[in-house]
Write a structure and sequence with these properties.
The chain is an all-alpha fold and 197 residues long. The protein contains 7 helices and no strands. The structure holds cytidine-5'-triphosphate and magnesium ion.
Length: 197
């Protein structure tokens, strides 16, 4: 029998399960936006002098390669910090939603860590003799998460553990490769990137 009481119970359960998904999803974006933005901005605005100034490592291959430039590094980090400042301002606009509280330190570490992770990944890519832009699954997708979380772990571990709860971590690990792939396809379509990965 479909009694009103049962009907309400169905919606209670339904809403709880929806909250379990949507709230960590919003929290994950809130945490990761300052780390997600630097890469596409570097791809858009980067270029010019390479970070390694064109020099080779002792194995005779480039240290980082032409895909890592000073302009990309600085504009990317700046963009990540700016979107972080925007989140700090916007947080006050959603009273009642349990959002992680971004600080100047957390957004700086997220943005810087994202591109340092990308840089370290390129260092190892060159050591494995992979050309600039070569596809390197897993490393290409999670470099920014590893870099950002490592910097936070060293310089602001209390913030990291408070903001990145287990459900938020799971969501980040699921959405990061999806977003990475999606933005790279868009970047390729608009000819910002030479390859769709
Ligand atoms: N970029 C940059 N400076 C950075 C990071 C990125 O200028 N610090 C720009 C480069 O034009 C680069 C593009 O963003 O080609 C895409 O970045 P990414 O995919 O990380 O570099 P790849 O060219 O794929 O090089 P790699 O093989 O070293 O990852
Ligand atoms: Mg690449």
């Amino acid at each position: 029998m479909f009694t009103p009481a049962l009907y309400y119970r169905y919606w209670d359960v339904h809403n709880i399960s929806l909250d379990l998904l949507i709230i960590p999803l919003i929290q994950a974006f809130w945490v990761m936006l300052p780390a997600y933005l630097p890469n596409p901005v570097a791809a858009l605005l980067g270029g010019g002098t390479p970070i390694d100034f064109g020099r080779n490592f002792r194995d005779g291959r480039r240290i980082f390669g032409d895909g890592k430039t000073w302009r990309g590094l600085f504009t990317g980090i700046l963009a990540g910090i700016l979107v972080g400042l925007l989140l700090m301002w916007a947080a006050g606009q959603f009273p009642g939603v349990p959002l992680p509280v971004q600080t100047l330190l957390s957004v700086t570490l997220l943005a810087t860590g994202a591109l340092l992770g990308d840089l370290v990944k390129s260092f190892f890519k060159r050591r494995f003799d992979k050309e600039r832009g070569a596809n390197w699954p897993v490393a290409d997708q999670y470099d920014l998460v590893a870099g950002a979380f490592l910097l936070l772990l060293v310089f602001d571990p209390v913030w990291l553990l408070g903001a990145v709860t287990l459900p938020v971590l799971v969501v980040i690990l699921v959405i990061t490769p999806v977003l990475h792939r999606a933005t790279n396809i868009v970047g390729y379509m608009f000819r910002i990137k030479e390859v769709p990965w």
